[in-house]
């Protein structure tokens, strides 16, 4: 394992834009679209007036140029199609594929990107150099899918403020009210729900309709090292349980890690029973703030229930890894120091235990909708936030003054500084009118009060 990790340095030196994911991984959208990874099609966020950048950046294209969709395509043909071959060839040449711009922008601002941490993670589990050696001059690789990200439809039990009917069935009724009332043209364009998810042959029922997908996926189970489930909400989707049972019945569950990004609202007993048969479970609990602000962002969750679920997860076996996964956005960037202080005060045994998230929590950046990205804030507001974080770094240093490992950990103060550097790296404040109208309209629809969270700013 150590020799594989050491080999990563040589790979990065020779192939400076290399990422392991195009060699081992595919990602789905809830309507069946296939993409390079779960962040690839956010690479266009914030980019304007350039026709090559659109919402389909990062979405796999068939050889005819149309988006690859699991309603009319399959895993085997997508794995080595011209789009995937082209990405691999670019990376081996040291070029940045369009679909990967998001990661490189984050890295430039000091934020730890998905490309970096995923590649490092997989370097400890598989031989990356062998993958490169097995790549043909045309960019083809053997059909072994080690890791797949599954969004098995849009069925969900929350309608988070940064979400949409693309990812949450509960959002549909609010979207109808919102879209018809919006006046800002740019905001309205951003909120378009293309043919209700049926664009390019998409359908949220693809898991029920595409038996060829399941046949091909089951054939990959012997190669599988990780299954990743995200929204909709996998814990209430039956096909999720069907796949887990298939892995168990075929005898491969002990070789497979399960990974989730979940709102944690429903965790039935049968889920814990199934988890006990897998190698490891990495459960990323999507929580974005403490108390009422989290209830606003992850509407209509109730904080008392979230805390109860955290307490329950804190009692799970060692094979279940639990982290808080915070989606950093305009609404919570100011309050993250308070959120971290709350988490530390709880003294959880296994929720982000050191060194996971440096014992604090994990962060990822909201790109879509773009008007909720932290780059949108006015410059003077950004400076106020940066000043607050500067004081918070001092608080953390005081509480960890004897802990050199914490102070130097890439997920500790360095990660927080990366968030601020990212926020300051570009000015997207022209989107502020979109943000204001969006929050006002949503407050009218839901009977909420977003203004209350900005009063202390």
Characterize the structure shown.
- With 457 residues, this protein is an alpha/beta fold.
- The protein has a domain at 2-144.
- The chain is built from 20 helices and 8 strands.
- The chain has helices at residues 2-14, 21-24, 75-79, 82-92, 101-108, 114-123, 128-133, 172-181, 185-190, 206-209, 211-220, 238-249, 269-275, 292-297, 303-313, 336-346, 379-399, 404-408, 413-424, 432-446; strands at residues 25-28, 34-35, 147-150, 226-229, 257-262, 280-286, 320-328, 362-365.
- An 8-stranded mixed beta sheet has the order 2-1-3-4-5-6-7-8.
- Helix 8 (172-181) crosses helix 20 (432-446).
- It is globular, with a radius of gyration of 21 Å.
- The mean pLDDT is 92.
Radius of gyration: 21 Å
Describe the biggest sheet? Answer: 8 strands, mixed
Number of helices: 20
Helix percentage: 40-55%
Lateral strand order in the biggest sheet: 2-1-3-4-5-6-7-8
> What is the tally of beta strands?
8
Q: What order do the helices and strands follow?
A: HHEEHHHHHEHHHHEHEHEHHEHEHHHH
Q: How much of the residues is beta strand, in percent?
A: 5-15%
Class inferred from helices and paired strands: alpha/beta
Q: Compute the separation of the termini in Å.
A: 48 Å
Low-confidence stretches: none
